[in-house]
Amino acid sequence: MELLKARILKDGKALDGNIIKVDSFLNHQIDPYLLDEIGKEFYELFRSGNVTKVLTIESSGIAIGVFAAKYLGVPLVFAKKTMSLNIDDNVYTSVVHSYTKKTLYDVKVSKDYLTESDNILIVDDFLANGQAALGLVNIVKEAGARLEGIGIVIEKGFQDGGRLLRSMGIRVESLAIISQMKNGEIFF
Amino acid sequence: MELLKARILKDGKALDGNIIKVDSFLNHQIDPYLLDEIGKEFYELFRSGNVTKVLTIESSGIAIGVFAAKYLGVPLVFAKKTMSLNIDDNVYTSVVHSYTKKTLYDVKVSKDYLTESDNILIVDDFLANGQAALGLVNIVKEAGARLEGIGIVIEKGFQDGGRLLRSMGIRVESLAIISQMKNGEIFF
Fold this sequence. Notes:
By secondary structure, the first copy, chain A, is an alpha/beta fold. Chain A contains six helices and twelve strands.
């Protein structure tokens, strides 16, 4: 997606440790026009698939997911990272290892909002090691739902997540794949 | 907002302890059409105010804020509840007491995304005790920015938050104000 790549080159920052900072438009400050275009792009990619729900994970997936869901004409469900008192025990759970935050966390979705008749599109802002996406894939499986595919905004092509998910036969569509980050420069 | 009130009556659940559960369309599963309409409503209410940014708090404020921001033609900034490794120490911080989760948490916004030239619209899904909103108000003050007002989706009119914020001279617009919850029934 050229609009996205141009924005990453303009406002993204390649930091040490293969961290790319896109806080200024994607996951702290959010450009709603760009996110709307991203939602439209996921719609174009997955419109033929009879998606019944979009699934993402709090927090940075939400703004992306809600536009994709709007264009697809379906609800968005976002997985929660900790147990909230307002959700009962009626949940699907998966454990995720976060490399960035160096911690394990639980991902939870209420059983009320994922069923075996669902056909799910997972979306997220980043794909690196693929652990968060895998957590969501496991929840889709647990629910007995079908997985239509995964839509990613920025994939770090030099990390293993994309290969891992695609080797499982999952359709993964990334709008920008970063091949390399070197001396503060970003390459697609 | 009649569309919202009708949806609350249809799908909201009044639970013990004055908890209203709107997980099925507002803060776990999300109806993007309703949220789009809510964003439009906040735009109508605050369009004359020269808002430069919408500010909300993760996670359930994000989907609301991104539509409001889109209609207002400005960025959305969402405050984070914990320190992420990807944000530097260059942050505004406020401490919030969560009655629901019975805990204290830090709310943080990068100094890069709030400045004294900003005019801020705060939005959130709920207003009850007003602690989360107050945390955001404090961050706006800390940044030296102007506060245009606060847009709330559901206010619990029988709790103190609305009175507290309005007594500070803040313009608070709630799209649905619940006056009472009794025997599982919701009254506006």
